[in-house]
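User: Second chain of the day. Same drill as before.
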Amino acid sequence: MANQIRTDSKYDDYDYPTTSPEVKSGHPGHTTPEQDAQVFQLRTQLEQAGYKDRLDTLTMFGTDDLVRTFDYKEKPQVFQYYPQYYHKTDKDGRPVYIEQLGKIDLTAMYKITTSERMLSNLVVEYEKLADPRLPACSRKAGSLLETCCSILDMKGVGISKAGSVYGYIKQASAISQNYYPERLGKLYIINAPWGFAGAFSVIKGFLDPVTVQKIHVLGSGYEKELLGQVPKENLPKAFGGSCECEGTCALSDAGPWQDPQWARTPKWAQDEKPSTTIENEPSSTIATHQPQGGSSATTEPDAAGAGAKQAPLA
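Assistant: Same format as last time:
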């Protein structure tokens, strides 16, 4: 196994650690010659298909235009009904991602925004996770970090809300699974309602064992276990921590990616191309990058526009 990731000077320019702390076959810095050859083959195929940008070894595809131009100015109002945000780091140095499902009110939210713009924001946040959040965390930790510690708060979630949010959650999940796999480090489902643990015990039989090990289903007495993973000073007070960011933790975007010691200008913000900011229009569309330099308008990210993180090679 190699001790350093095999890079290509034509595409790769990293100023943060590129070797995974987990010594597992297929992870960066621990690949075989055969696995490196697969990366080369994939990049060659993408070039032949007309793709020229975002072909670096670690991320292998993404969307620059959307993350540059998308202006989610309604975010504070949307967060009143659906808080979803990154906030500081866990004990392993990974970004902590928090969602509060119990507050979802799509009827109220769709008076403020659209499902298309909510999905666009999801893509933008995944792109910002790839750069600058994870690189900043990697610099601070001294090793490559590629995953998050996620907290899914189900307080207030009931059967009455399930039907109204299913469509959106299905679309959001499809983007996460298809274009941004391997981002989950740990998942804590807290305030799980009665019966959820039993249902999950059935569902997990259909999940990959590696994924199951990452998921922790907890009831209302979750604080001790959660604080074992997330330092108290990094966890919002609402979840048993001591952090009270100015202007609320949900809107602070606090973390190493905001610290000049660790933060760098993300690559998508360098050499910016002229573009039009996507405003909050009822029928807003997403301009997605296409091969041969063209673009098309679509109501939700596609394979070319949403981007895909390279999953570890088997």
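The first strand starts at residue 84 and ends at 89.

User: Great, on to the next one.
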